[in-house]
Amino acid sequence: MKLRLLIISILVELAGAALAHDNVPQINSDNSVTFRLYAPNAKKVFLEGSMIPKKRKIKIKSMTILRGQKYKMERVGDEWTYTVQALPSEMYTYRFVVDGKPTLDPKNDRRLRDIADTLNYFFIDGALANYYKEKEIPHGRIEYKWYPSTMNGMSQRRLAVYTPFGYDADKERRYPVLYLLHGSGGDETSWADYGRVCQILDEMIHSKEIAPLVVIMPNGNVALDAAPGESPYMDKNPKAMNLSSMLGKIEEVFPKEVVGYAESSYRIYADKAHRAIAGLSLGGLQTLYIALNNPDMFDAIGLFSPQTTNMLTNKTIGKMEMLDKNLMDFKAIFAILRGDIPSNTNMSSSFEKVKIYSDFETKLDVLYANNPKLLYIAVGEDDFVMKLVNDFRSQLDAKDYPYHYNLTDGAHTWENWRKYLIDFLPRISEKP
Amino acid sequence: MKLRLLIISILVELAGAALAHDNVPQINSDNSVTFRLYAPNAKKVFLEGSMIPKKRKIKIKSMTILRGQKYKMERVGDEWTYTVQALPSEMYTYRFVVDGKPTLDPKNDRRLRDIADTLNYFFIDGALANYYKEKEIPHGRIEYKWYPSTMNGMSQRRLAVYTPFGYDADKERRYPVLYLLHGSGGDETSWADYGRVCQILDEMIHSKEIAPLVVIMPNGNVALDAAPGESPYMDKNPKAMNLSSMLGKIEEVFPKEVVGYAESSYRIYADKAHRAIAGLSLGGLQTLYIALNNPDMFDAIGLFSPQTTNMLTNKTIGKMEMLDKNLMDFKAIFAILRGDIPSNTNMSSSFEKVKIYSDFETKLDVLYANNPKLLYIAVGEDDFVMKLVNDFRSQLDAKDYPYHYNLTDGAHTWENWRKYLIDFLPRISEKP
After folding, report:
1. CA A11 and chain centroid, separation
2. Interstrand relation of B374-380 and B300-304 (parallel, antiparallel or unpaired)
3. Closest-CA residue to A142 (of A189, A106, A186)
4. How confident is the model over B237-282, as pLDDT tens digits?
5. B111 touches chain A (CB under 8 A)
6. What is the pLDDT of residue A301?
7. pLDDT tens digits, residue range B106-124?
8. Percent of chain A at pLDDT above 90?
9. How close A369 gets to chain B, by Cα (Å)?
């Protein structure tokens, strides 16, 4: 009976838990990658992922956009297999599509949430993966914390904080700080999870590429106070398209709520010389306007694939209304983006008060009058925001305002945003 | 062109992100739950989850064990559907099995990793969910941090720390501490993710059921220094059955490495009266032996569905060897569990030195001579560890050693462990 109990104990522990295998997917010696899925009854299995070039064109309402391709996997007995050509060093995400259903790789425990999807990931060793992979080097800590915030009728919001190795050992030392903002569809976990902030910072600090710093990653989506599973407002699911909850809200309260809270809670320097801010996509737009409205606050400003507002005219607003009205209140948002609040739009009272996007040119002049150490703009040549970035650069060039421009290949992807962070950090850090 | 760019921007943001829907699965007014999956090409779809009674008997090597049933879903057009009878308040996990492949609910963003699986979850409102759901109450913070540890040739290990709301506001205040240990297959994220530690503690502190305390959740699996995605040792995937890496390792270094680190890093009281320790399953066994070997360290000891070592005899060791040798070094482990290291077994040098499991009865006497405030034992009547728990209780009863016994329904499940934590906490806390 006693033996039987132990065996039962072991078997029950086994039951329900897929025993994951090593080296999944299989990285071959030439860095080609072989994916395998056991699916004897499937009719059609596709592989999709970030390692596949985005080349497939799709048409939506007469618009042509680029989308990721899928690779059709080949049946070999009960298994489906596909080998992707030799890949450069990176962190790649992927999943299978089995008879039309997105399916995770049951043999790969590495999983990430991306907005409302869950994806597997793997690394190809080398230069870039050296920043992204977990290593036996001293680690900083990541914490998820709530701070008082009354936005959207809530009482608190969640943010993530990276503190470097050694933060707790020397209780007197102060650090520079980087405020790092996610994009549309993201939340306070995005930069740590997808952006590999802990691994990148650990590595760059350990290898003395940068001096230790604290990174504050707030949640800039006003509809959700926290990531899924942490927010009481789970009826508001994360959406890729959330302009209306990303824009015109957190920017206004940022200096007091986020910076004020961070400076009262962490040992960070509270002066312009030691404050940096950066954001991706719509978080880049937030970053730009937080800086414009607080010209004496940040000495370094990073715009990663930023969306900017300079494209918006009265003419486009009318056209945008052709799109599904239910998705968002376009007219109100664009009016705010323009700094112009027409009386005939149906806007909430909080929207009406927001002036964060007004007087762009004046604010830009004041920002540069304050002589920021660095305005950094990075974008990929296939990024759909390229035109917007070029328009913004033209405005800067016309006034001879200096900025650092990092034009890369690639598009609007986490691959680029991680690389931009690696490129940005040494520029805002004193040599350790 | 400008309009087009904006539309493209929006569409690209949309692409690839499933727009999640509200209220998935559908909780009906009588608390029955309707699950739906769009899968037009599927031949057979099952629903499995914690809301389904474990009644299916399976036979493995002449052993009969209970396993969860699956409910066969019904096709209605392109959708598959199943309605589960009215459920009591709880947090439930589930997934679909589509033509034999485990499949997440694409419309439910609530996802949890359980060892190597990912599952969806939902709540039925009421008494228990009141502890588990995210609410608009003051929140503590959760942080993931690395501490020096040389176990298994590594240099650091990761732990999770819950600090209550207000911890940062009053920089002088000290708190009682609970060390909370996961089971086989778990890691430092298990109690926070599956065990809802943040939500439970936030609620119990806010409603004044307990006084604020700090919870330290280490990683007791020596094979992995951190959860998947955080560990450099990802070739060692998480496994449900990891006796060999769970036992005889962390217990020995616990006082110095874990307690020592916690007390130097957090404002917690460093005396027996303010220290509690609890663990589930194999973490319960670790808890018991950490307490037995450090009888003056903890005033409260919680064993949740604990596995205990008193079942092990020389006779069983021989029989265990019938099982697959590759799974683990049974003989070595059982020798250690017995405190008896036979010279003819193939054990690592670190194993040979471990004496943590020896002299059980003597240590038990010393523990009770130190007069602990509480030894708490909780187990479900269908739990496979019931016999072991009863044997252990007999030993305590024979010596008239007092303990609190919480016999519940249910089995070896997170449902029970969460409930045990809720029952345990007020017993170790002074009234706030």
Report:
1. 41
2. parallel
3. A189
4. 566 666 667 777 889 899 999 999 999 999 999 999 999 999 999 8
5. yes
6. 98
7. 888 888 887 777 899 999 9
8. 55
9. 30
Q: What is the DSSP string of A102-133?
A: EE--TT---EEEETTEEEEEEEE-STTHHHHS
Place of tokens 């890093």: B265
- Amino acid A46: pLDDT: 95
Are A387 and B135 in contact (CB < 8 Å)? no
Q: Under an 8 A CB cutoff, do A65 and B22 touch?
A: no
Say if the Cβ atoms of B116 and A20 lie within 8 Å.
Answer: yes
Contact A98 B102 (CB under 8 A): no
Is A131's pLDDT higher than 70?
yes
Question: What is chain A's mean pLDDT, rounded?
Answer: 82
B197 neighbourhood in chain A, CB within 8 Å: none
ipTM above 0.85, yes or no: no
Please name the member of A3, A5, A141 whose beta carbon is closest to the beta carbon of B144.
Answer: A141
Q: Crossing angle, helix A282-293 and helix A360-369, to 10 degrees?
A: 70
Asked whether A133 and A123 are in contact (CB, 8 A), the reply is: yes
Mean pLDDT of B151-173: 92
pLDDT category at B353 given cuts 50, 70, 90 is very low
Chain A CB within 8 Å of residue B319 CB: yes
Cβ separation of A8 and B384 shorter than 8 Å?
yes
Any chain A CB within 8 A of the CB of B325? no
Helix (H, G, I), strand (E, B) or coil at A163: strand
> If pLDDT is split at 50, 70 and 90, which confidence band does B354 have?
low
Q: Report chain A residues whose CB lies below 8 A from the CB of B66.
A: 12
Distances (CA, A) of A379 to A217, A241, A412: 21, 20, 8
Taking only the tens place, the pLDDT of each residue in B327-344 is 344 455 555 444 444 444
pLDDT in tens, B202-244: 999 999 999 999 999 999 998 888 888 888 776 555 666 666 6
- Chains A and B form CB pairs within 8 A to the count of 278
| CB-nearest partner of A154 from B113, B136, B235 | B136
CB A290 within 8 A of CB A277: yes
Which residues of chain B does A389 touch, with a Cβ-Cβ cutoff of 8 Å? Answer: none
Contact (Cβ atoms closer than 8 angstroms) between residue A187 and residue A226: yes
Which residue of chain B is at minimal alpha-carbon distance from A21? Answer: B237
Which residue in the block uniquely carries the two structure tokens 């790789």? A105
User: Across all residues in chain B, what is the average pLDDT?
Assistant: 82
pLDDT score for A87: 96
Alpha-carbon distance B429 to B418, whole Å?
17
H-run or E-run covering A265: helix A260-265
Q: What is the dihedral of CA A258, A262, A263, A268, to 10 degrees?
A: -130
Burial profile B212-244: b = 16 or more Cβ within 10 angstroms, e = fewer: bbbbbbbbbbbbbbbbbbbbbebebbbbbbbbb
Which positions ≥6 away from B9 have C-beta within 8 Å? A307, A384, A385
CB contact under 8 A, A65 and B12: yes
**Chain A residues near residue B232 by CB distance under 8 angstroms:** 133-136
Closest chain A residue to the Cα of B21, Cα to Cα: A237
Around A233, how many Cα atoms within 13 Å sit in the side-chain half-sphere? 17
